């Protein structure tokens, strides 16, 4: 019941969101109580860095990532699936941490890819390594933020 309510609230929230038409320009998003711009650059790779993300596996992996991002209301700015790793540049909600995004995407892709491509994935104990890279990005540089904070302090 709580999960269904949470999903309903997220759908209502997503539909009321004011976003920019041009996703290449990273403008702030506004809703009732927040103004935000949360963008992550995420990288993760298969266990033992096996180069198995090619052909049909790569296509299915891309479909799964795009579907999960759409379901969660995340905007994919760039997705690059290499044979031995994935780069994702994604815009998310303020309530979504990088760890949550990676967990969701690794989870859904591992579940379906291991089920649908048993022959290629059966020798691996798990599809993905436990590690990942995460970095934040945005329109404002470190220097701009430092100048803003200094100006607010009256320095």
Provide a brief overview of the structure:
The protein is an alpha+beta fold and 155 residues long. The chain contains five helices and six strands; from the N terminus they run αβββαββααβα.
List the defining traits of the structure above:
155 residues, alpha+beta, Alpha-Beta Plaits, four-stranded antiparallel beta sheet, two-stranded antiparallel sheet, 6 strands, 44% helix
Question: Which consecutive residue ranges, at least 5 long each, have pLDDT under 50?
Answer: 7-23
Mean pLDDT, to the nearest integer, reads 84
Number of strands: 6
Question: What is the strand content?
Answer: 15-25%
CATH architectural grouping: 2-Layer Sandwich
Q: Radius of gyration, Cα only, in angstroms?
A: 18 Å
Helix content: 40-55%
Q: What is the count of structural domains?
A: 1
Q: State the end-to-end CA separation.
A: 52 Å
CATH homology superfamily name:
Transposase IS200-like
> Structural class given helices, strands, pairing?
alpha+beta
Sheet with most strands: strand arrangement: 4-5-3-6
- Main CATH class: Alpha Beta
Tell me the major beta sheet. 4 strands, antiparallel
| CATH fold field value | Alpha-Beta Plaits
Shape: elongated
By DSSP (H or I, 4+ residues per run), the number of helices equals 5
Order of SSEs: HEEEHEEHHEH
């Amino acid at each position: 019941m709580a999960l269904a309510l949470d999903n309903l609230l997220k759908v209502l929230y997503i539909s009321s969101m004011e976003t920019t038409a041009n996703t290449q320009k990273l403008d702030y998003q506004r809703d009732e109580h927040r103004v935000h711009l949360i963008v992550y650059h995420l990288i993760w790779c298969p266990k033992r860095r096996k180069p198995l993300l090619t052909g049909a596996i790569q296509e299915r992996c891309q479909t799964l990532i795009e579907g999960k991002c759409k379901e969660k209301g995340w905007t994919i700015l760039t997705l690059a699936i290499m044979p031995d790793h994935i780069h994702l540049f994604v815009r998310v909600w303020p309530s979504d941490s990088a760890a949550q995004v990676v967990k969701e995407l690794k989870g859904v892709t591992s579940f379906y890819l291991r089920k649908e491509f048993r022959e290629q994935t059966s020798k691996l104990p798990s599809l993905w390594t436990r590690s990942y890279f995460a970095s934040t990005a945005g329109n404002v540089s470190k220097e701009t933020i430092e100048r803003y904070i200094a100006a607010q302090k009256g320095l």
